[in-house]
UniProtKB/TrEMBL annotation:
SUPFAM superfamilies: Zn-dependent exopeptidases. Belongs to the peptidase M17 family. GO terms for biological process: proteolysis. Keywords: Aminopeptidase, Hydrolase, Manganese, Protease. Gene3D superfamilies: Leucine Aminopeptidase, subunit E, domain 1 (3.40.220.10), Zn peptidases (3.40.630.10). PANTHER family: LEUCINE AMINOPEPTIDASE-RELATED, PEPTIDASE B. InterPro entries: Leucine_aapep/pepB (IPR011356), Macro_dom-like (IPR043472), Peptidase_M17_C (IPR000819), Peptidase_M17_N_1 (IPR048816). Residues 303-310 form the Cytosol aminopeptidase domain. This is Leucyl aminopeptidase family protein. The keyword Nuclease does not apply. It comes from Paracoccus liaowanqingii. CDD domains: Peptidase_M17. Pfam families: Peptidase_M17, Peptidase_M17_N_1.
Amino acid sequence: MTLEFAPASDTALPLWPVWSDEDLPPEAGTWPGASGFAGKTGQICLLPDSDGGLRGALLGLGERAQAAWDRFPLARAQGLPKGDWRLAALPPGLDPDQLILGWLLGQYRFTRYKGAPVQGPRLVCPDGVDGPRLLAIAEAEFLTRDLINTPASDLGPDRLEAAARALANQIGARVEVISGTALVKQNFPLIHAVGRAAASEPRLIDIRLGDAGPMLTIVGKGVCFDTGGLNLKPGASMGLMKKDMGGAATTLGLLKMLAGTGAAAGLRIRVLIPAVENSVAGNAFRPGDVLSSRKGLSVEVNNTDAEGRLVLADAMTYAAEENPDLMISLATLTGAARVALGPDLPPLYCDDDATALALQQAGMAVGDPLWRMPFWDAYEPLIEPAIADLDNAPSGGMAGSITAALFLRRFAEGAGRYAHLDIYGWQPVAAPGRPKGGVGQGARAILAALPRLF
């Protein structure tokens, strides 16, 4: 499937999005009333012409009071017949860019293993809407979704590196990769320890774009599959672990967005992805091990299934050595975040009020919500075990997302500002513009917040 807008032409059929409480356009005639159309959310009414063909359609938007919770109402129009369509009117109260982005995101299909891409209805980009920018955003989100949806059999650390190199070549970025035993020699002991038992060796992917301006560094968790290690996950919990590289996938999607929209101009952007597979073998790291970190802090491993914060720790330390103006970590890190806020609302941790407010407000504005949670200093003792500097999995099970964020913050020292997003990276139930499966979270919020961040 090619993601594109239809060319403007007289043959494109008109589409009227309508609220349930508004009068229907006079062009619709009496047919909608006779066919039971009431403007309910997602309801489509095809308008016949005198010859039995199509002359247009109505799309129900539902009640205006629910509009704030419906991120991509126009995505429901993917149920229209194949052909070219144009918006006969932009519904009042809705952001045109967000509306059209919803149409584009609704076209996503993951067809790598089944069937072939099918071209659905196409939309003429309305006047005043920046079509190329929205296409760049949607294509970047599709990259994220494709990476998350691809199983580990076809996307281990080596393949994730290949995807990163392909993107870097596309946007003119530079790439360096440290892998295997070189991680030990160059002082990335935690990344190596977590990934050394896998068939595809662990690696740290380092991408740079831009040579001048403030530095934005994004660190994405790239655990391509997580068995839980020797603290083996039960089968029901392991089934979705191809998505444990959702932070890396979202980070690559964000990099593609920044480059494709021109938002990267005037910035130095660095992306770091520790890419590993947490596997079981004779050389796997063990519960009770005390590991060294690049920062020099020792870490007691009380659960090998809390591996994401370990690989992020070395990558973040490396990032902080350059003193970036803003460092952001993106990771499918804790089940506790899902218990607290569910799959749709990632926690945002940030000590800088202006940065946190910019990200949260931007996320709400573009349908990519974040919810601020506290770096609660009173919980710091929970991550300090008796025999090492840090504990990767505090006992008790309470405040798991907060203690994980506190653990990461220990390795952000040197960055001007630091923010952490504990994302899910998965859409468990299909929604307009977000089919069931891999999904990016936080990238569009960061993109929209950039003017306020620098």
